[in-house]
């Protein structure tokens, strides 16, 4: 069964990026990067594979979903950040001319898009960000994978934006690294039948 997985880096205070969209405050070195390369290689930008002459494994994900701000954060490196995956960008104000080759821009309801992707099957769907999109999709997220970084932002975009609506998840695993990063995995708490 295809799952929607929100895999994202966050600060200790639950921010996915600075107010200006930057994420430079997250540690870019450390032993946690080896685990990401081994376990979450599909989430590395295609430019890294292109530079090394290797190919992305596509073992976990078939599709990546991004809000416009998340997509725009990678435009300095490439206009097709995850060309090894089906890329879907959500925006109400941009047009197809604003995205690179191999990137689908849509104004559709994100919940309908996710329902269609789950129905279609195949690899899992990676929700890359941002917080507004995650807030719209909270009811559809099957797994949370949080790379908790040892830094407090104080301000910035939250992990989830939206109205108060408690949603339960169950901790499945947690790994601690010398870098101070924690990678925690949660599954959606399902009501008893």
UniProtKB/TrEMBL annotation:
Residues 3-182 form the Bacterial bifunctional deaminase-reductase C-terminal domain. SUPFAM superfamilies: Dihydrofolate reductase-like. Pfam families: RibD_C. It comes from the Bacteria. This is Dihydrofolate reductase family protein.
């Amino acid at each position: 069964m295809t799952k929607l997985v929100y895999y994202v880096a966050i600060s200790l205070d639950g921010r996915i990026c600075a107010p200006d969209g930057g994420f430079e405050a997250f540690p870019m070195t450390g032993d946690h990067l080896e685990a990401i390369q081994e376990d979450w290689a599909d989430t590395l930008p295609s430019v890294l594979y292109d530079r090394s002459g290797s190919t992305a494994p596509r073992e976990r994900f078939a599709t990546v979903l991004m809000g416009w701000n998340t997509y725009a954060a990678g435009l300095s490196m490439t206009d097709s950040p995850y060309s090894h995956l089906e890329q879907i960008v959500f925006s109400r104000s941009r047009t197809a001319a604003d995205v690179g080759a191999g990137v689908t821009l849509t104004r559709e309801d994100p919940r309908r898009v996710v329902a269609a992707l789950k129905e279609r099957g195949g690899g899992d769907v990676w929700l890359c960000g941002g917080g507004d999109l995650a807030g719209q999709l909270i009811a559809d997220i099957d797994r949370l994978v949080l790379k908790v970084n040892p830094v407090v932002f104080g301000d910035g975009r939250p992990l989830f934006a939206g109205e108060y609506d408690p949603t339960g998840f169950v901790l499945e695993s947690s790994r601690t690294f010398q870098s101070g990063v924690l990678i925690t995995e949660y599954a959606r708490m399902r009501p008893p039948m």
